[in-house]
Amino acid sequence: MIKPKFKETIPVFFVNNEIHIGEEDGVAGIIEDPNGSIKYLISLIDGKNTIEDITEKVLLKYPNITSQEVHEAIKSLDEEKYLEDNSISPRVMGEYERERYKANLNFFSLFTSLEDSKFEIQEKIMHTNIALLGIGGLGSQILYHLAGLGFHNINALDFDTLELSNFNRQLLYSEENINELKTVLAKKRISEFNPNINLNITNKRIECSEDVMNHIKNSEYVICVADKPTLYIQDWVNEAAVKLRKPLVSGGILNTRGRFFSVIPGKTGCVECHKKTLMESDRTVNEELNNMNQVNFQRNNAAISPNVAMLAGAMVNEVLGLVTGISKPISLGKMMELNFSTYQTYSISEWERQDNCPVCHSILQH
């Protein structure tokens, strides 16, 4: 039976004849309590009493209050996301996981009601398989975030070796490991940081969509922060993710701004749909791409660690929303831009699925 309690993140204060619940703007509330009945009700919402117990005790002390009013009061507190069911236990998490991911659980509880389990959210994360393409500046910080959240199954790919110029933004590595493979170093460091993680590494340069398909085929979600070759990598990753129906979150840094987008194959438009949308609205786009291709354009790095951290956090939160459903990703079918100078995030382009998209069309045939 449900045993409601106030969430660990929701403080309750008693000030004169008022009850203050919560502390965040838009979440906190103030309740008038002239006769003390609500204060008594709240004192019973301690995770030990069932709703029936609470009702019985309130009616005994305040006979003029009805059981319906008690139930409606508890329902109102639940609708504000103040309460959780203390009788819910994790299915697979032990004491170790509950302590290690304690702050995660407190955060996830903010999105649950009495009928939901914060443990199920964490357990979903622990059992979800993520494919990560690129573990350089952005990818190494994303890998740290995934490990902190408790993604226990990660397949990471990179081909590069560690260089001295990497250290202004790549926090996963040490100078003593210069010239060593980033994949090997990442596996060692992440296993120290979170020994529960099964991190499979692939040391390979991506040269076609088949390479991407081979890497992501056993994963449920794909994160792409690989940036070479500049003009082809997004097309290859897009084709592989769409064909295998793997949700994709992709992004990169463009000097003073970060950009990211998300694709759910079969539901949102893909990268090719985006290109077609841009070309239809601006005929110079195709000409610009052709010119860049002719000069073999490769983008030079101008990323600094705090900017990388902001974009990495935004992208991992998008993945978190896709995996758990606690929030809807803001970048579905949109190119989002994060301005590192103003901290504003906004959409710079949006697109729908194109009926004549050859990439999306390929999955409709299966």
From TrEMBL:
Coiled coil region boundaries: none
Pfam families cross-referenced by the UniProt entry: ThiF (PF00899)
Gene3D superfamilies named in the record: NAD(P)-binding Rossmann-like Domain
Residues covered by the THIF-type NAD/FAD binding fold domain: 116-359
InterPro entries tied to this protein: ThiF/MoeB/HesA, ThiF_NAD_FAD-bd, Ubiquitin-activating_enz
Name used for this protein in its record: HesA/MoeB/ThiF family protein
Organism name: Scopulibacillus cellulosilyticus
